[in-house]
Amino acid sequence: MTHKVYFTANFKRQYKKVRKSSRWQPIFEGNLPFDGKNRSAWRYILDSFEERNPLPEYFYVHPLHVPKSLIQRLKRDFGLNNHATIKVLELHLDGHNGNHLLVYYDDERITVFLGIGTHSDLFE
Predict the structure, then answer these.
(1) How many CB atoms lie within 10 A of CB 89?
(2) Three-state SS for 45?
(3) b/e sequence 27-59, b meaning 16+ C-beta within 10 Å
(4) Which of 43, 57, 75, 112 allows an S-S link to 80, with CB 3.0 to 4.6 Å?
């Protein structure tokens, strides 16, 4: 089975906004200090999900508490098991103390990008 990556409508709106921001330029055009392929953080993340490679600790992946309605929507829209435990994760595109965030759901079958932005963009 092929792994698929999906982008929600909310993610697409947020992505358009951050892509235009000069504050996000290092995420989309800079190079990661540990990547020998000279990829940006964004390209590294996309490649890692598509190739199913584990993410390094640099990105500080951790679970998020999200509304039950979001979990129900994920289950409905992507055909996930109603009884499965769904964990939504967040990673920091600019390292552990960074403020450029990606919110997503990931399992062996699919990755769903739910949101992208800073803490204040996403949580206030």
Answers:
(1) 16
(2) helix
(3) beeeebeeeeeebbbbbbbeebbeeeeeeeebb
(4) 75
Measuring CA to CA, how many Å separate 38 from each of 35, 53, 66, 100?
Answer: 6, 17, 34, 19
Whether 112 contacts 12, CB under 8 Å: no
Q: Provide CB contacts within 8 A for 49, sequence distance 6+.
A: 3, 5, 106, 111
Provide the percentage of residues in the chain whose pLDDT is more than 70.
Answer: 99
Q: If you ran DSSP here, which 8-state letter would residue 56 be given? A: P
Verdict on whether the full-model pTM lies above 0.85? yes
| Count of domains forming the chain | 1
Higher pLDDT, 1 or 3: 3
Q: Residue 75's closest CA among 108, 105, 103, 52?
A: 105
